[in-house]
């Protein structure tokens, strides 16, 4: 994303209260931070979980962990449970709770149309009452990780895909390079 495209994207939240579509992962945090740096005021986090409400859809994190993240950020957490088939409807169902906190915008961590977090953008396109900001859209994943590390953000590995990474990485933290 060019700097002018990013500025236009962040103008969506500038001076306005927003909720963050929150997976509990590094991209959600970076999208939140960019929206705040762009002048937005976060008022809530919206997290989607599996049907039983115990784990997040995006990273299969325990909801208790995401609740601790919300507490550390000083933001209320709105949780909606859904299957992949009912995900978008449940996401939309969470908007009134976010609006009750004052949100008129959302910040989503989608980087591409294949991303589940693009739901925030596609769903809000049908609602004149809510506009989505996609501050990470189209950016290479490696560049996003480098930005996070360069900013001194320390991330802790709390979940791994055992097919791609050994479980010994659980609990490992990133450090500034």
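-> sequence recovered:
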């Amino acid at each position: 994303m060019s700097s002018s495209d990013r500025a236009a994207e962040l103008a969506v939240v500038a001076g306005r209260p927003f909720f963050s579509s929150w997976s509990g992962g590094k991209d959600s945090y970076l999208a939140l931070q960019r929206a705040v740096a762009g002048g937005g005021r976060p008022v809530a986090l919206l997290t989607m979980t599996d049907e039983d409400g115990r784990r997040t859809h995006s990273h299969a994190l325990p909801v208790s962990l995401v609740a601790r993240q919300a507490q550390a950020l000083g933001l209320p957490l709105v949780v909606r449970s859904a299957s992949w088939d009912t995900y978008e409807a449940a996401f939309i169902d969470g908007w009134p709770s976010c609006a009750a906190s004052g949100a008129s915008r959302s910040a989503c961590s989608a980087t591409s149309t294949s991303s589940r977090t693009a739901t925030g953008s596609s769903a809000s396109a049908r609602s004149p009452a809510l506009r989505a900001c996609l501050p990470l859209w189209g950016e290479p994943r490696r560049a996003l990780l480098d930005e996070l590390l360069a900013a001194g953000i320390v991330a802790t590995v709390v979940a791994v895909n055992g097919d791609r990474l050994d479980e010994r990485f659980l609990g490992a933290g990133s450090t500034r390079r």
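The chain has a mean pLDDT of 85.
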